[in-house]
Design goal:
The chain is α+β, with helices and mostly antiparallel strands and 573 residues long. Strand 7 and strand 8 form a beta hairpin.
């Protein structure tokens, strides 16, 4: 098996042939590629590597069919040719664009090479490359800016023995002129001219002959494989998403996903407020059209016609779901949304809820809320979220729009949160902790510093506060050592950052007791809005951490049972 040829081979292609292909439009860029972003100094570094014949990485291209099957664009500065490209560059755009612009003179910057760093005029010989200061020899000039000198001026070039990189293949007449300008003796000028031509052959030839290894993916390569390969090669660069690939795939068919997405963000501000990923919209759309949110199905089965039919319903459904979660579930910002993926099945099913009559709509919304809270508190989207979304969408369609309880979503049917699990849950269990905090927001929890409802505070100002500081939790208090943990979720409340700063590292009750009597009453009322017992003899008042935890557990259990419509499993905690 080890003797078989690899699936993909890297074959060398010279810079000269690649530049010609770019000019002719036979090599282009897929529509999803980012724009050219390299700073001029990076192009200078690449030119130094090429001249030095150092490795400069592999290029990745993808063969294309003759017919229009994928959106593309030409390299920056290339005039339209009227022909479709034979290959698209998946990895290497920045390097190829840099070399193309440097060698053709297009773009805002031009690149220049000083001759004398390469030449030992006293010895009339070329310097070894390792003795050449390439940092001084190669430089970029911004043609848009005024400067004290103009390297594009031919007289300046001769006077300073500096030529444009773009003229590298037309230097013989220029070398003759340069030699005559510095050597009045005809024979000496001829000798220098010959040395300059040797300089071109030895040090400038790689600008044309240097070969990049090029891996060329066949036209039959599946989109999923293209996506995976791109992500593997481009870890430190722009991530390639299925949305990018489908944008290019559907463009020739008249479906312009980027335009649709821009319009959606403008019409539905909640999409941007909650930082909804455009790919999430496509997953929800794929659920509606194909019944799956798996990446392979989104890439391979979703069609331009599907997008045309379901786009508006899906984006409006996503916005309506976000509005529901923000207004009725306490998810005031994306930072407090327990799961991003749970939006996908909810958005996919929401348009049908909107079409229901009032009573049926109210029933469906109540069920959707139960599904949401059950999914959060069972942490049902921690693993296999794409598969879970597909299963939940099918179950939601059967459950929401029928009086029969034939197919209940998994999180509702198998709700298994126990009182022990809730008691011992630490704040780093992201979904459960966010669910707990936002449930309290829904129930009207107030900031005890400003007395405002948490839901009315700017989301960027929210922070969490330990009710019992670490210093106030003593192991000697507990029979169960597991409870001796100041990082338990039940020991946290949401507050304004200013309040968090005022309290500092003090136990909350210590902070309250330091206030005057009137302020203390107000603070106690605010604390109780977080479902914390604060009266005389309570765990908070007596500074008993274990009693505080068990008192709060009792109240939180009641809240969760109401929200989920399910019973907590009691294990005697």
């Amino acid at each position: 098996m080890f003797k078989e040829d690899p699936v993909f081979k890297a074959l060398p292609e010279s810079i000269g042939s690649l530049v010609v292909a770019i000019q002719r439009g036979t090599i282009a860029l897929p529509d999803f590629q980012r724009n050219f972003v390299w700073e001029p100094k990076r192009t200078v570094e690449l030119l130094k590597s090429v001249i030095s014949r150092y490795p400069a990485g592999t290029l990745l291209t993808w063969e294309q069919k003759d017919e229009a099957n994928f959106g593309y664009r030409l390299f920056h500065g290339v005039a339209a040719t009227g022909r479709r490209p034979a290959r698209l560059v998946l990895d290497g755009q920045q390097r190829l664009t840099s070399m193309y612009q440097a060698l053709t003179g297009v773009g805002d910057h031009r690149f220049f090479i000083r001759v004398w760093p390469f030449v030992d005029r006293a010895a009339m010989e070329l310097r070894p490359l390792d003795e050449v200061d390439l940092d001084d020899a190669i430089f970029a000039h911004d043609s848009r800016r005024r400067s004290r000198f103009n390297p594009n001026d031919q007289e300046w070039q001769i006077k300073n023995a500096t030529f444009p990189v773009a003229e590298y293949d037309r230097l013989r007449p220029w070398f003759k002129k340069l030699a005559r300008s510095v050597e009045p003796d005809r024979d000496a000028a001829d000798d220098l001219e010959e040395l300059l031509n040797q300089f071109r052959d030895k040090y400038l030839q790689p600008l044309e002959s240097y070969a990049f290894p090029v891996v060329d993916l066949p036209v039959s390569t599946p989109l999923v494989a293209v996506c995976n390969i791109f992500e593997t090669l481009n870890r430190s660069g722009k991530e390639l998403t299925p949305f990018d690939l489908l944008t290019a795939k559907f463009y020739p068919q008249g479906v312009h996903l980027r335009d649709l997405w821009s319009e959606a963000i403008a019409r539905y501000p909640l999409l941007q407020e909650f930082k909804v990923d455009a790919y999430g919209i496509l997953q929800a759309l794929s659920l509606r059209a194909r019944g799956s949110a798996q990446r392979s199905d989104v890439l391979n089965k979703l069609t331009a016609q599907d997008v045309s039919e379901h786009w508006e319903a899906t984006v409006s459904g996503m916005s309506d779901v976000l509005d529901f979660l923000k207004r009725q579930c306490g998810a005031v910002s994306p930072e407090w949304l327990p799961y991003g993926m749970i939006l996908v099945p909810m958005a996919a099913v929401f348009p049908e809820i909107t079409d229901l009559r009032s009573q049926a709509k109210a029933t469906a919304m109540e069920k959707l809320g139960r599904f949401y809270w059950c999914s959060v508190f069972t942490e049902n989207y921690d693993q296999g979220a794409n598969s879970q979304a597909g299963a939940d969408y099918k179950a939601l369609r059967a459950w929401l729009f029928s009086d029969e309880e034939k197919r209940v979503p998994e999180a509702v049917a198998e709700f298994n949160l126990s009182d022990t699990d809730l008691l011992l849950a630490r704040f780093n269990r992201k979904a459960l902790f966010r669910g707990l905090m936002t449930l309290l927001v829904r129930e009207g929890a107030r900031d005890f510093g400003t007395a405002q409802a948490i839901s009315n505070l700017p989301p960027m100002n929210l922070d969490t506060l330990r009710v019992f500081a670490k210093s106030a939790v003593s192991v000697s208090e507990f029979e169960d050592a597991e409870l001796c943990d100041a990082e338990l979720a039940l020991n946290r409340i949401l507050v304004d950052r200013g309040t968090r700063k005022d309290v500092g590292d003090r136990p909350l009750m210590e902070y309250i007791e330091a206030q005057d009597a009137g302020t203390q009453r107000k603070l106690i009322e605010a604390v109780e809005s977080h479902f914390i017992e604060a009266g005389e003899g309570s765990g908070l008042a007596s500074q008993s951490y274990e009693l505080f935890l068990r008192e709060r557990l009792t109240q939180i259990v009641d809240l969760i049972e109401v929200a989920t419509g399910c019973s907590i499993v009691y294990e005697g905690s």
